[in-house]
Design brief:
Aminopeptidase, globular, two-stranded antiparallel ribbon, alpha+beta, 10 helices
Amino acid sequence: MAGRTQGKKGKTTRILLIAGIIAALFVLIAIIAVGVRGARADDPASAGQETTIYGDEYLGIGPGVDEALKDYRNLVVFGIGQSSQTDESGQANDDFIIISIHNNQDEMKMFSIDGDTYLKIQKGKYGAAADAYNDGGMDRLIKVINQNLDLNIREGLALEWDAVAGLVDSIGGVEIAADDGSAQVMMGAEAVDFARTGHNMQTVFMAAFAKVKTMKSSELAPVMDELLEKAVRRGMSRDKVTATLTEMAVYEHTANIIWPFTTSPETLHETGYIMPQTLQSNVSRLHTELFGQENYDPTKVVQKTSREMESKAGEGNAK
């Protein structure tokens, strides 16, 4: 592919730094958006016998879902409103980005989940997707997304918004296309404001990726460590991050998918939500468009949750 004729050492160093900056800029995303192809938590139990165990009850991953998505590594990334270097005290209140990396192809897809999307948080409790993280941290959020969307997420990254703004400033801003087709350079605070409104996080990510590819390695080096210091991570070590970043440069990117696809606004207990119409149909369409599972039939868990959500919306009451 283009670019592979350069020196391997220099190119590898540059790619590592590029991917680091991406995540910083986009709040979010790419530092862990670089999957290890074929590297799964369910490696063979022994050298002579390939045994794969699917599912993870703690993270809400059903065995059948995990097996069906065995070729994909799915991760969640998002921004939080205050410092959380040592704990999960930050509050999530915007979109969540799901990054889906195909283990056997140079392909990365993304979709956003509105933080106000009404989902089942735990038994007997429903609320906004952001409530899952605010109430129970990264593991709770991952479990909620897995159970409501039939996914197999095991990894997550949250970055402080203030840190993202500072890092955008450090690279001289990002270039965003204006409505009239002209290009506009946004600095840190403005880029963050733009990313946090109108589902623009994916747009900022793509602009950041384009920008850092034009920069020198010496300019990018200070960003990597600062990024990782500001992140709340789940399932991602530094070694795992850096060992997989070299894949990023050759990925094809598919962005600008917003989930749920069909919604209606609902006010429950004087709180506004984005209600999927219906959860079951939105999950089915997601798996068809993102994973190529034609006429996807959601699990019984999703079907039951979908019925419960419709009932609550009809009653105008949520617990």
